[in-house]
Each structure stands twice: as C-alpha cells, then as structure tokens.
C-alpha cells in the first residue's frame, strides 16, 4: 500500500521551499529598489567569512570619541588598535545552511522577553586580555541587564560591505558572552558598530550589500541585533554631504535586511542630547519608525575643555536654577523632553546613566564647588571609574549631593570629580519610571564595581534594576 501521506508531505515541503524562495526574491527586489548585481564599482567579489586581512581603516569618532583628549582610551577602555583585521561573512551557502534551525531557536529566545518590562540596556567592552584587571564575560551577571551591547576594541567598523572586527580573539569572546544565555535565555546580545559610517553612506550599493551582510553577521555570531553608534552624522563642515538623510537610508536598509527572515532581530542607535546637534544630525521620526529603541547618551554634558575651564556635572538630572540659555539645556531632563518632542516614542527611548565620572584639576583649592575654575582634566586623564570615585570620596575635603542637579561631586585639594553613586542612579531610574520611558542604558558595565571582593557587585546596575522592578506596572519605592 502506498503511503500517500509521506508523498503529500514531500510535495508540500517542496512547494513551501519554492514559495519561500520566490517570496524572498520578490521582497528583496521591493526592498532594495534596485538590482545589486549591477553594482557601480563596489568590490564585486564575494565576501569571505574569515579572511583576517589587515585593513587600514579610518572611521569617525566612536562612542569614546569625546574621551580621546582625556585619555580614557588608555585608562578605562584600554588601548585602541587602529589597524583592525577583517572578519567577514560568506554569501555562499552560509545563510541557507543555518536558516531553518536558527529561525526557531532564535525566535523563541527573543519572544521570551516580556514587552512590558523596562529595558536595561548595558554597554560592555569586551576585554583585550585574560587579565584579572579586566571584566571577563564569565564575570558578567547575566540577570542585571535585559540587553547587553558588545563593544570591541577600537570599535566594530563598516568596511568591505560588512562588519569588521579588529582582533582575532573576538570570535571566542562573543561565544563566551553567548554562553551566558545558558543561565538567562532571555538575555539579548547586540554588537555596537562605531566606525566606517562616513564612507559607507556615500555609496548606495555598498549600503545595500552591507545591510544584507549585517544579517549574515548577526546570524553567524548568534546575536540578537546591532547597535549603530555614529558620532555624529551630518556634524561636519561640509553641509553638502547630507548625512542626516543618508543615515536614515542606512538604518532603513539594515532594519529591513535584519527582519527579512528573522523579524525579531533588533536594531538600535545611540544619540546625543545636545540641543544644536539634535536637529542637525537626526531625523528622529523616521529613524524611530525603523528602530527598536534609541539610547540617549545622557552624559558628557560637562568635561574639561580649554573653552570650558570650569567644573560641572557629567550627567546632571536637572538644571541649576541659575542657568540660562544654552547652559539650561545641558541636563538629562531637557534632553529627554527634546527627544520626545521630536518624535521619539516614550517606549523606544532608553535614558543613559554613566557608571564613569569626570575629573578636573582646580585652579585653587579655595574654590571647590560646581563652576570652580579649572586648569585641566584631572587624574585618570579626565575620567574616573565608579570604584575609583568611591576611593576618592573616602578622603575628600568636600563630598556632596547637588540638591538641584541630583548628582554628587567631591573635591580633594586641587582635584575635583563629578560622578554617579547609588543614590543618583536610583533617582535616575525613578525618573525613567515616572516619565514612562522604555528603560535605561548604562555606559558601561566595565566602569561599575564588578570586583568579586566587593560586598555588592555592580552596585549601580543593581540599584537600577531594583528601582525599575520587573514590569512597568510594578510598584517600587526609591531607596
């Protein structure tokens, strides 16, 4: 007797495969709006998965770009290698090989994350060595954050129509981070791309190919999405570049490519909260419609600059009543309201909370308050981690909470710091709750007190999690 059920099942599977291929092809044509085979002089050869070819790449400033003059690249974030090695993804068989099994495991993992939960998006810089002085993947608490955004070395780069990492060991490090899902299957992992935007957006065909390869890259590393940290589009002396519009195009293409087969892939960006840059750099309504969330870099409002030779808060929650004009806008409350007024939905806005502080060298120890004259950046080359700030405060001449800005500062002789503590982090998390925002973004896990010898590991992240609670409807009293 002929088993018709097996025959029908085989026919059905064959038809389903053909239909999927046709749909994918038709959708691709609709999305891209052009035939990428007719590329205009853009590296037509297939991109290989693991060439490790040396590349001399000059990209824009990174998430740490405003730290460069203050030396954070060597103090907090480690040395920066400017000659990345290429890690690319195959176009042949690679995607089809993994698509079926990956669809189910990845889709189920993403959907296990509750939509009504406040997001806790944490940046984490992957270590450059196995040194005990660096935060290793296994030492990261997988339950502190709902999302972890991975930063690699000098910054992942757009180049050669794909994403380029700058060292060989990042494959292993990313795998070690992915292994954290064994403890917390709901943990979502993204990679932050920080360089290569300027050249990429000038070539539409390169954008299309890069968008396609972004999906393959994310799938290959078993990530949940990408974070685009361009600092900053359209912020250049040449207004003809029109990077504001081109950034929208890049986001649209990557967003579509990521979700073409896997609709639960995530895409986010990090934006400044400074007034003149918001309108010049970003088309926020169009960006928001193509993103899962937007992280507000609500820090670096004040740091030592030769044209700003006085102390100020790194991340003030509110302005001083004496501030007027531009100074009245350099605070988190203003930035949050500005993004909301410009079209960012509340549930897509992640408010940044820094775990690092800023340091100044005072002109005189006789003036140790906010706005005191300064002659340079202070110890730590202008930046300070939370554990270093705690140590500094223990022997400070002055240690106070600014009643208006709601953030602490401290001074010792000619050294002055603005930093975050448990109380200020709790107040900022409460601000997120009361304003109905989507959650918080922290920068970074590395700068919190992660030492296993500490009585409370990751105290800043822990209090943020406690204040935000489990869901938007849960109640919690701020400590």
Describe the structure.
The protein is of the alpha/beta class. Helix content is 32%, strand content 16%. An eight-stranded parallel β-barrel has the order 1-2-5-6-7-8-9-16, surrounded by six helices. Strands 10, 11, 12, 13, 14 and 15 form a six-stranded antiparallel sheet that branches. The protein has a single domain (41-355, 422-468), classed as TIM Barrel. Residues 34-113 and 471-479 have low confidence and may be disordered. One of its GO terms (biological process) is chitin catabolic process. Residues 118-471 form the GH18 domain.
The DSSP helix count reads 13
Taking the sheet with the most strands, its summary is: 8 strands, parallel, barrel
In the CATH hierarchy, the third-tier topology is known as TIM Barrel
Strand order of the largest sheet: 1-2-5-6-7-8-9-16
DSSP, total strands: 16
Q: What is the molecular shape? A: globular
Pfam family, one: Glyco_hydro_18
Protein name: Chitotriosidase-1-like
GO molecular function: chitin binding; chitinase activity
Transmembrane segments: 9-32
């Amino acid at each position: 007797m002929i088993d018709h059920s097996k025959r029908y099942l085989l026919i059905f599977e064959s038809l389903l495969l053909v239909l999927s291929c046709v749909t994918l092809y038709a959708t691709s044509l609709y999305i891209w709006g052009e035939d990428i085979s007719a590329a205009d002089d853009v590296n037509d050869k297939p991109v290989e998965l693991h060439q490790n070819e040396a590349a001399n790449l000059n990209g824009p400033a990174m998430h740490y770009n405003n730290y460069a003059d203050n030396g954070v690249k060597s103090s907090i974030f480690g040395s920066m290698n400017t000659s990345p090695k290429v890690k690319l993804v195959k176009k042949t068989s690679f995607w089809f090989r993994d698509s079926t099994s990956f669809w189910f495991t990845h889709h189920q993992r993403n959907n296990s994350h509750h939509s009504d939960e406040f997001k806790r998006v944490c940046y984490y810089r992957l270590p450059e060595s196995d040194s005990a002085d660096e935060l290793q993947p296994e030492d990261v608490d997988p339950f502190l954050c709902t999302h972890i955004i991975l930063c690699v070395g000098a910054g992942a780069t757009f180049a050669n129509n794909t994403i380029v990492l700058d060292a060989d060991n990042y494959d292993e490090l990313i795998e070690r981070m992915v292994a954290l899902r064994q403890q917390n299957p709901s943990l979502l992992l993204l990679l932050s791309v920080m360089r290569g935007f300027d050249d990429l957006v000038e070539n539409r065909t390169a954008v299309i190919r890069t968008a396609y390869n972004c999906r393959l890259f994310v799938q290959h590393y078993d990530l949940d999405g990408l974070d685009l940290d361009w600092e900053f589009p359209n912020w250049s002396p040449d207004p003809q570049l029109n990077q504001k519009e081109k950034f929208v195009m890049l986001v649209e293409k990557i967003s579509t490519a990521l979700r073409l087969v896997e609709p639960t892939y995530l895409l986010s960006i990090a934006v400044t909260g400074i007034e003149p840059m918001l309108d010049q750099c970003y088309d926020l309504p169009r960006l928001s419609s193509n993103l899962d969330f937007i992280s507000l870099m609500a820090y670096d409002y004040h740091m030592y600059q030769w044209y700003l030779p006085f102390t100020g808060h790194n991340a003030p929650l509110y302005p001083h009543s004496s501030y007027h004009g531009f100074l009245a806008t350099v605070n988190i409350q203003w930035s949050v309201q500005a993004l909301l007024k410009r079209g960012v939905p509340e549930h897509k806005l992640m408010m940044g909370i820094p775990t690092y502080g800023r340091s100044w060298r005072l002109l005189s120890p006789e003036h140790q308050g906010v706005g005191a004259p300064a002659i340079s950046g202070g110890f730590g080359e202008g930046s300070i981690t939370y554990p270093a700030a705690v140590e500094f405060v223990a022997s400070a001449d002055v240690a106070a909470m600014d009643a208006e800005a709601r953030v602490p500062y401290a001074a010792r002789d000619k050294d002055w710091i603005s930093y975050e503590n448990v109380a200020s982090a709790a107040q900022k998390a409460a601000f997120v709750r009361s304003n109905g925002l989507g959650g918080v973004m922290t920068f970074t896990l590395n700068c919190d007190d992660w030492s296993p010898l500490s009585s409370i590991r990751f105290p800043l992240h822990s209090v943020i999690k406690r204040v935000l609670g489990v869901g938007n409807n849960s109640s919690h009293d701020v400590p």
